[in-house]
Amino acid sequence: RRALEIAATGLHSMLMFGPPGSGKSMLAARLPGLLPDMAEAGGLQSAAIHSLDGNFDPARLGVRPFCSPHHSSSAAALIGGGGIPRPGEISRSHEGILFLDEMPEFDRRVLEALREPLETGEITISRAARRATFPARFQLVAAMNPCPCGFLGDPRGRCRCTPDQVSRYRGKLSGPLLDRIDLILEVAALAEGELFSAAAGEGSAAVRGRVEDAWQRQLKRQGMANSRLPAASLDRHCATDREAAGLLQGAAARLGLSARACHRILRVARTIADLADAATIGAAHLAEAIQ
Fold first, then answer.
1. Contact (CB, 8 A) for 17 and 145
2. Which of 29, 111, 182, 271 is the S-S candidate for 10 at Cβ 3.0 to 4.6 Å?
3. Which tens digits make up the pLDDT trace of 180-239?
4. In angstroms, how far is the first alpha carbon of the chain from the final one?
5. With 90 as the cut, is the pLDDT of residue 84 above it?
6. Running DSSP on this structure, what letter comes out for residue 148?
7. Which residues, listed in sequence order, are joined to residue 144 by a DSSP beta bridge?
8. 3-state SS string over 111-122?
9. Closest by CA position to 94, among listed 47, 52, 154, 57
10. What is the spatial distance between Cα 133 and Cα 207, in angstroms, rounded to a whole number?
11. Rounded average pLDDT over 65-74
12. Alpha-carbon torsion 238, 278, 201, 188, what sign?
């Protein structure tokens, strides 16, 4: 729930892994109810894309789209293509959410094609007769099992996958692709006692109120979501105190973080600080982002 609130506030990409039935898909389906309102320009772009396929619903104008393609989808369906280039699911998700359930089951070439739009917010499709560029600034949310059967680490010993099978399964997600995902977290299965005795949780409306407040702080400071801050703006908008700067430097050395990963951590920490209404990123904000 905390990670979902952070993802909604800064429009951060997120990958959840855990056993079947632990709630990954349910969490993803709740995310649209937490997101801040879409800007008018983004709403018009989204409507224009959907109108190309004749699927535009005027009642959905200004509502962030939520697309969840099946893992058997082709590259053309996800990225776009055709003799006359048409937008794919990533463009239909523009200014909204692209949810990839069972992410490792997607064709690896399809997943690798996500790297460019995750960086640039657009996709260019070239064909012999025509070349087209479509907007594709989506929020990637993905879910996966820890192994092919889904029960790796289960205390009851239900997993029968070999180490080689687990390695091949996880190897479908390349390092460069994972390096572009802001939040990676484990969603553990609840014990029977927790599952049947859980108290009523906080409603989406209350969480969305905090998200909207932090969203307005971002817009007032920099005019865009924290996840979209260019690297050149990080020193200005993601200032850290001395303790936090030392923590990030130590983490980069111990964990072997790339420059992109360090920038990603700073953007997430800025979102956490915005939720706490803090002007400067502190050590606690940075530590949670690293975690």
1. yes
2. 271
3. 999 999 998 877 777 787 777 888 999 999 999 999 999 999 999 999 999 999 999 999
4. 15
5. no
6. S
7. 17
8. HHCCHHHHHHCE
9. 47
10. 36
11. 92
12. positive
For residue 140, the surrounding DSSP H or E stretch is: strand 139-144
Output the CA torsion sign for 26, 184, 220, 59: negative
Contact 27, 4 (CB under 8 A): yes
Confidence band for 114, pLDDT divided at 50, 70 and 90 = very high
* Residue 144 · residue 150 · CB < 8 Å: no
Beta strand pairing status for 14-17 and 66-67? Answer: unpaired
Integer Cα distance of 136 and 289 in angstroms: 26
Residues in the chain: 291
Which residue is associated with the tokens 């979902």? 4
Q: What is the mean pLDDT of residues 141-147?
A: 95
Residue 176 CA to residue 181 CA, distance in Å, equals 9
Buried b (16+ CB within 10 A) or exposed e, 233-248: ebeebbebeeebeebb
**pTM of the predicted model as reported, rounded to 2 decimal places:** 0.91
Tokens of 141: 């949310």
β-sheet bridge partners, residue 99 = 141
pLDDT score at 129? 72
pLDDT above 90 (res 131)? no
- Angle CA(167)–CA(24)–CA(151) in degrees, nearest 5? 40
Smallest CA-to-CA distance from 26 within 139, 141, 150 is with 141
Least Cα distance to 98 among 109, 87, 86, 83 occurs for: 87
